[in-house]
Structures are given as structure tokens and as C-alpha cells.
Design goal:
Layout: H1 2-12, E1 19-22, H2 28-38, E2 45-50, E3 54-59, E4 64-68, H3 77-83, E5 102-105
Parallel strand pairs: 1-4
Antiparallel strand pairs: 2-3, 2-5, 3-4
Length: 118
């Protein structure tokens, strides 16, 4: 029982972000460059948490990067989520939620020849 409580607690307690990018509307290229540049500092990506005003990219060791000023209601969050292979439902991504944040797994895979027209 103590192991379960400790593992649940470890999800709530996270260290400070390894790097922070302050997003300004219209500067999607800078946010993409930030994620590309800092991606090598993380291990295998595990999940993404998206708040109304920020985005966390989290690896298997619970290290993470933060993009401030960009949330699930913003259209510019979609290219960033696609870039890091986030599995999300595009129909509900921008919908408001009562939860503190939305959490998505990374590692989305595409079937072979998905882009081909038959």
C-alpha cells in the first residue's frame, strides 16, 4: 500500500523545468526551434500536460520543459503536439475542461502508407 501512495505522490511532485520558453502569439517558429534545440536534453518522451496557459513536455524520468503562454485553447499548440508525436483527439483538444490540465501520451504511431491515396 505505501508503494501505491508514494507512486501517486511522485506524479504530483515534479522538479523545476529544465528549460522555459515564453511564447508570444505569432512566434510559433521560435517555440518549434526551442523544442528542437532542447529535445536532446530529455530521455524518451512520456507525456504532455497542457494547461490553459502553458505546456509541459515530460520524459520517462519526469524531467520536463515548459512553454509558457500557450495552452490547449490556442491553435498554435497543434503543431507542437504533432512535432512531439502526441496522441490526442483534435475534436476535443480545444474544449474547456474542469480539470487543472489535459494530459496526453506521446509516441503516437502512424500506420504504414497512411498518407497514400488509394
Amino acid at each position: 500500500m505505501p508503494c501505491e501512495a508514494a507512486s501517486g505522490l511522485s506524479d504530483l511532485i515534479m522538479s523545476a523545468p529544465l528549460a522555459i520558453h515564453d511564447y508570444t502569439p505569432g512566434s510559433l517558429d521560435a517555440a518549434v526551434a526551442f523544442l528542437k534545440r532542447t529535445r536532446a536534453e530529455l530521455r524518451t518522451l512520456r507525456k504532455v500536460r497542457v494547461w490553459k496557459d502553458r505546456l509541459h513536455v515530460i520524459d520517462v524520468n519526469k524531467d520536463y520543459f515548459e512553454v509558457r503562454g500557450l495552452g490547449y485553447a490556442d491553435a498554435d499548440v497543434v503543431p507542437l503536439l504533432r512535432m512531439i508525436n502526441t496522441a490526442y483527439n483534435p475534436e476535443t483538444l480545444h474544449a474547456a475542461t474542469e480539470a487543472e490540465y489535459k494530459e496526453f501520451d506521446t509516441g503516437r504511431r502512424h500506420p504504414w502508407a497512411e498518407d497514400r491515396v488509394m
